[in-house]
Write a structure and sequence with these properties.
This protein has three helices and no strands. The protein is mostly helical and about 70 residues long. The chain has one domain. Helix 1 packs antiparallel against helix 3.
């Protein structure tokens, strides 16, 4: 279980880093010509969308491994 959490922490950091870079790139490309409503919606969606992949990573990290008792 310790190894899964150790690996999961670095995977979590990598996922968030890549996600932030992609969102920043999209914001620079989309938002300069968008209005305030579109800007609000972009940040609302982008601010919550990272939760989806991280949820599965956290579930994997907390699942017992082989040979571990529940």
């Amino acid at each position: 279980m310790r190894w899964k959490k150790f690996i999961g922490v670095f995977a979590l950091l990598a996922i968030i880093t890549v996600y932030v870079l992609l969102v920043m790139r999209a914001a620079v490309a989309i938002l300069p010509t968008a209005g305030p409503v579109a800007e609000f919606l972009f940040y609302a969606v982008a601010g919550m969308a990272w939760v989806v992949p991280v949820r599965y990573l956290i579930l994997w990290m907390n699942r017992p491994g082989r040979g571990e008792q529940v």
